[in-house]
Design brief:
By secondary structure, this protein is of the alpha+beta class. The protein folds into 4 domains: 68 residues, no CATH class; 26 residues, no CATH class; 111 residues, no CATH class; 105 residues. The protein is built from 11 helices and 6 strands. A 4-stranded mixed β-sheet has the order 3-5-6-4.
Length: 329
């Protein structure tokens, strides 16, 4: 039996279909993207170039309506069971993870095996820098460091595996069983970057003034994208906001997880790729201004606060949210 929420979702998609049918150029752009296997960033730009202002407004209204409906829906189950009785990862969850990995390079907390071939470690950094270009370079450096450590661990494992197999063959052991044991012991991460766990903030040397000066404008934008467009980049800047706000508001305690019912103030940007970001834009300072204005309005009560990332991947809206709550309530 259909529920009112089910009917709302159906009506929302019927609305979207009518919008698209009225704009054949949009459908043609989608077919081009599918045929040429274009990246998400290129697809977004291609679609935006085909839409007139009226259609853009209609689709944004549809998106907002669908978001409103979806808020009241239960979270999708992590796994589903097929008629055969076998269980598998929910395709909806799988698609969300694939989107996350396409932006971040890896999602170690959701991975239980080795780092897939072609993936890059997604490593947050411990920093106090408010310069997103500098933080972006630190993120890249941290990823490269973990990649080297992981490759070294794989090399050591391969060397040990060769010795074990050689010994097992000499002793007449079951080689198939030995190979299974060896495969089960393949490294899945390194210290601070383990499969099945949230990666730890990594300390890396900040780039020098000379290194920053040698970056081209496109490289600067790419560094800012690493901070804004990746999960671990946003995680890295959250403590920077907290530290800066703590210096400005010494009577407010910062850190921890938000309390249920906390007041929320968000500062976000929408970006589909590096070209959407200006490296000269004062990212942290502008966010600080929004958060400071909210804290200035508080009465003289004992408050706690924290800053956490905004990870709205589907709409490419990224940023940070300030949570504030009264410690006495």
């Amino acid at each position: 039996m259909s529920t009112p929420d089910d009917m709302n979702i159906v009506r929302a998609f019927q609305q979207a279909e009518s919008i698209l049918r009225a704009n054949p150029e949009f459908a043609a752009a989608l077919e081009k993207a599918k045929a040429e296997n274009l990246s998400a960033e290129v697809v977004a730009r291609l679609l935006l170039s085909r839409l007139d202002e009226g259609t853009m407004t209609a689709l944004m209204q549809f998106s907002n309506a669908l978001d409103t409906v979806a808020v009241n829906q239960p979270a999708p189950p992590l796994v589903v069971q097929h008629p055969s009785g076998r269980t598998a990862l929910n395709p909806v969850v799988e698609a969300a993870l694939a989107e996350r990995v396409s932006l971040d390079g890896d999602a170690p907390e959701f991975r239980f095996g080795p780092l897939p071939e072609g993936s890059t470690p997604a490593v947050p950094v411990k920093t106090t820098s408010r310069n997103p270009v500098q933080v972006g370079l630190m993120l890249e450096r941290a990823s490269q460091e973990v990649a080297r450590e992981y490759q070294a661990a794989l090399t050591r494992h391969a060397e040990h595996a060769a010795l074990l197999l050689d010994q097992a063959e000499k002793e007449g052991q079951n080689l198939a069983l030995v190979r299974q044991t060896i495969e089960a012991l393949v490294p899945t991460g390194v210290k601070g970057y383990a499969a099945g766990a949230l990666p730890a903030l990594r300390e890396v040397a900040p780039p020098t003034t000379g290194e920053l000066a040698r970056l081209s404008p496109s490289e600067e934008r790419r560094m800012v994208w690493k901070v804004v467009g990746t999960t671990q980049g946003r995680r890295s800047l959250a403590p920077v906001f907290e530290q800066a706000l703590a210096e400005k508001f010494p009577n407010i305690e910062f850190g921890g997880s938000p309390k249920k019912g906390a007041t929320e103030v968000s500062w976000t940007v929408q970006a589909f790729g590096a070209d959407d970001l200006d490296p000269k834009f004062a990212l942290v300072e502008n966010g600080m201004g929004v958060f400071a204005s909210a804290l200035d309005a508080l009465e003289g009560k004992p408050y706690r606060a924290c800053v956490q990332p905004v990870n709205n991947l589907s709409s490419r809206i990224f940023g940070w949210t300030l949570y504030v709550w009264n410690k006495e309530e």
